[in-house]
Amino acid sequence: YISLSFSLDLSGSITTPDVKLNLGGEFIKESTATTFLRQRGYGWLLEVEDDDPEDNKPLLEELDIDLKDIYYKIRCVLMPMPSLGFNRQVVRDNPDFWGPLAVVLFFSMISLYGQFKVVSWIITIWIFGSLTIFLLARVLGGEVAYGQVLGVIGYSLLPLIVIAPVLLVVGSFEVVSTLIKLFGVFWAAYSAASLLVGEEFKTKKPLLIYPIFLLYIYFLSLYTGV
């Protein structure tokens, strides 16, 4: 409640009221302007909202970025052998957007070589190439979501990123360079196909593996400028 007290000076005039606001047994002195606003029904202007704990989340949590999860998926893609004991299905079953996007952007950066248009081309091929693989997989009877295909295709660019610095060193040796390119494409295609081509495709596996292989050949051609 609000407590008002008046004082009368020797000249007979009343001084400014001393207003106190009782909050939980403690009195807080208010200014005349505050009292005026409350009396006119504008007290809501003085209200201060409590901080919402939801607004204090870290930026990575706000953006739904799990660095540990991304790092684990990167290892699953770079080391696709089942004998290593990684739960590789997490790349497909728990898709994310920021990890594949970071991989695609990094591959775009190392593919520049003065051809700046290649960045937009790589991102476009990632999006629409994944859409093509997704539609083909659905037509063949596979139960896969577009987000899963987008994540797997994006993460599986990592082998091409790994062989990129090697190509810079052996670029003058045509035979060795060709073998490394083939190795990188097979590595990337195998990593993606082993996650996307499940048992539900049965005898139709080549119909999906082949376009995945061609997609990574095209990615590599964007990097080499061919």
TrEMBL record:
<feature type="transmembrane region" description="Helical">
    <location>
        <begin position="152"/>
        <end position="173"/>
    </location>
</feature>
<dbReference type="GO" id="GO:0000139">
    <property type="term" value="C:Golgi membrane"/>
</dbReference>
<feature type="transmembrane region" description="Helical">
    <location>
        <begin position="207"/>
        <end position="225"/>
    </location>
</feature>
<keyword id="KW-0333">Golgi apparatus</keyword>
<dbReference type="GO" id="GO:0006888">
    <property type="term" value="P:endoplasmic reticulum to Golgi vesicle-mediated transport"/>
</dbReference>
<keyword id="KW-0812">Transmembrane</keyword>
<dbReference type="InterPro" id="IPR045231">
    <property type="entry name" value="Yip1/4-like"/>
</dbReference>
<feature type="transmembrane region" description="Helical">
    <location>
        <begin position="179"/>
        <end position="198"/>
    </location>
</feature>
<dbReference type="Pfam" id="PF04893">
    <property type="entry name" value="Yip1"/>
</dbReference>
<feature type="transmembrane region" description="Helical">
    <location>
        <begin position="120"/>
        <end position="140"/>
    </location>
</feature>
<keyword id="KW-0472">Membrane</keyword>
<comment type="function">
    <text>Involved in the maintenance of the Golgi structure.</text>
</comment>
<comment type="similarity">
    <text>Belongs to the YIP1 family.</text>
</comment>
<dbReference type="GO" id="GO:0048280">
    <property type="term" value="P:vesicle fusion with Golgi apparatus"/>
</dbReference>
<protein>
    <recommendedName>
        <fullName>Protein YIPF</fullName>
    </recommendedName>
</protein>
<keyword id="KW-1133">Transmembrane helix</keyword>
<dbReference type="InterPro" id="IPR006977">
    <property type="entry name" value="Yip1_dom"/>
</dbReference>
<dbReference type="GO" id="GO:0005802">
    <property type="term" value="C:trans-Golgi network"/>
</dbReference>
<feature type="transmembrane region" description="Helical">
    <location>
        <begin position="97"/>
        <end position="114"/>
    </location>
</feature>
<feature type="domain" description="Yip1">
    <location>
        <begin position="86"/>
        <end position="221"/>
    </location>
</feature>
